[in-house]
Specification:
Elements lengths: L1 E4 H17 L3 H13 L3 H20 L9 E9 L2 E4 L4 H13 L28 E7 L4 E8 L1 H4 L3 E5 L5 H9 L10 E9 L1 H11 L6 H7 L4 H14 L14 E11 L4 E8 L5 E6 L28 E4 L5 H6 L5 E10 L2 H12 L12 E3 L24 H11 L3 E4 L5 H9 L3 E4 L5 H5 L2 E8 L8 E15 L6 H12 L7
Parallel strand pairs: 1-3, 2-4, 7-8, 11-12, 12-13, 13-14, 14-15
Antiparallel strand pairs: 2-5, 5-10, 6-9, 7-9, 12-17, 15-17, 16-17
Helix pairs in contact: 1-4, 2-3, 6-9, 11-12, 12-13
Length: 504
């Protein structure tokens, strides 16, 4: 019998979580590079370029790809001929590894897990507990898949029980068309079909850990009925014209992974779980010889990309001298380079601000004429001003936006993904604007931050309000003062352009 030492198991998971925080899988980089080469939408191509540049910077700097360093998911397959030498529950061992990885002094990862989801929602402080799935299998080894799943893409998970004669492809395409850009496309769609409700969801999540092969499938053509469905979904989703970050374009999805399981004759359970541009996962096996070892990827996998920063392509903006006339001159799809002072604020900060405004009290910061960035950064290390600081999904702030705009005089908001119709109306009514930074380019964005300090709600941790001084922070105008949204006009334009699914 193979004996696996407890510490070898814990060390391997902890090292894997650190590894995937700054190394994209090589197959993902190849597929994203292919998308960059094929994309014809300038705005979407620029977004993909930022994602690839950010990815290479993270690989070199060993810092997180995304500020949302994810929920830790660990799939453990224990061979019947292997024994894990421990008297501790498996969950406790995994949580020890997660806590070690997320509290690593040289590369701290953001703790996003809150306890008591129906109550106080207090942050656990170390991103525990992890989501652990265990299976007893043949063999004499322990096989482990480790992934870190971001909240933006996880929030777009969907499930349905279809009629047995229904088309899975139709349901997936129709569903993706309603998801917006909060899942940070382009990414991967994980699909589970069959079993039961919980089994289908598990299949979808497991499929996201499989190697990507859509480039080969497009080139060689399908070799099975399952391949045919994958290719159909891939082409039809891309024909929706959503594009990178929802800006409109040819490439919205890089790969489609499907797992199936036998099911009841009267049922067709189907689950969909997207993975974002911060796709992070790693597989390893333990055979009793020691902890797993992970080799860095070949930096030659990343394309050589230089972002265009000429005045013809991006307009410089001084945030400390914003005027109504200047904000009103911005147009959807336009690239801006922000310099000056902005503030940060996410869900918890917005909730407090609205409660304060309703009570008739004064806010701890003056937001009149200012910009507010929806971000919860990673802690800084070394000489960093701030850790990776990419945008969070702006839709979650929609419920607060009208009151915050009206009560503070806030002029500009920065996040990712689309805003709801009522919020777009509020933005126009208050003469404000909404800008997007690229989700999945957190380290790149952080390099534009020259100073940072907490100015309010320090007890909220990563959700505290910070004052940032930025220089040439790249953003795209998403909603202008007239209420025109690039998340409506962009995909509509490219949906008309792509009349038929892209050829294999």
């Amino acid at each position: 019998m193979t004996i696996i030492e407890e510490e070898h198991f814990v060390d391997s998971i902890a090292d894997a979580l650190q590894y995937i925080s700054y190394f994209h899988p090589s197959d993902f980089i190849r597929h994203m590079s292919d998308a960059y080469a094929r994309e014809e939408s300038p705005a979407a191509r620029n977004a993909i370029a930022q994602i690839l540049i950010n990815s290479r910077m993270c690989a070199l700097g060993r810092r997180p790809i995304c500020q949302d360093t994810g929920t830790a998911h660990v799939f453990v397959r224990l061979g019947v001929g292997a024994r894990l030498k421990t008297d501790q529950p498996l969950q406790d061992l995994v949580d020890r590894a997660v806590a070690r990885a997320y509290r690593n002094d040289s590369n701290p990862l953001r703790a996003s897990i809150v306890t008591d989801p129906l109550g106080g929602r207090k942050n656990s402080g170390d991103n525990t507990p992890a989501i652990v799935h265990t299976e007893i299998v043949a063999g004499d080894r322990i096989s482990v898949d480790v992934s870190a799943k971001g909240g933006g893409s996880e929030n777009k998970a969907r499930f349905a029980v279809l009629e047995p004669s229904d088309s899975v492809a139709d349901w997936v395409v129709d569903t993706v068309s309603t998801l917006g850009a909060g899942w940070c496309p382009p990414g991967v769609l994980g699909i589970g079909v069959g079993g039961s409700a919980e089994k289908a969801m598990l299949l979808a999540k497991q499929s996201l850990n499989e190697p990507m092969d859509m480039m080969a499938l497009r080139q060689n053509g399908p070799a099975s009925p399952l391949d045919e469905i994958r290719l159909e979904i891939h082409d039809r989703v891309n024909a929706l014209g959503v594009g990178a970050q929802g800006l409109g374009g040819l490439v919205s999805v890089l790969d489609v992974r499907i797992r199936t399981f036998p099911t009841h004759a009267a049922s067709l359970p189907v689950a969909l779980i997207p993975n974002c541009a911060a796709t992070r996962h790693l597989h390893f096996e333990l055979d009793g010889s020691g902890p797993a070892r992970f080799d860095p990827p070949d930096l030659g996998d990343w394309p050589d990309i230089v972002l265009e920063r000429t005045a013809d392509l991006a307009r410089p903006v001084d945030l400390d001298r914003l005027t109504d006339a200047e904000v009103a001159s911005w147009r959807p799809g336009e690239t801006l380079l922000l310099s000056g002072t902005l503030f940060t604020g996410r869900d918890a900060a917005h909730k407090r601000m609205v409660e304060t405004l309703r009570a008739g009290d004064e806010l701890p910061v003056d937001l009149k004429g200012r910009a507010l960035y929806y971000v919860g950064p990673v802690d800084a290390v070394g000489d960093e001003v701030i850790g990776p600081a990419g945008p969070t999904t702006a839709t979650r702030m929609d419920r607060f936006t009208d009151q915050v705009l009206g009560g503070t005089g806030l002029k500009v908001m920065i996040g990712k993904a689309e805003r709801g119709p009522e919020t777009v109306d509020a933005i126009a009514r208050h003469g404000a604007a909404y800008l997007i930074a690229v989700g999945g380019a957190a380290y790149l964005v952080s390099k534009a931050v020259k100073a940072a300090r907490v100015v309010a709600y320090e007890d909220l941790g990563m959700e505290a309000i910070r004052e940032l001084v930025v220089e040439d922070m790249p953003v795209t105008v998403a909603v202008d003062t007239r209420g025109e949204s690039v998340h409506q006009t962009g995909p509509a334009l490219w949906r008309r352009f792509v009349k038929d699914p892209a050829p294999a």
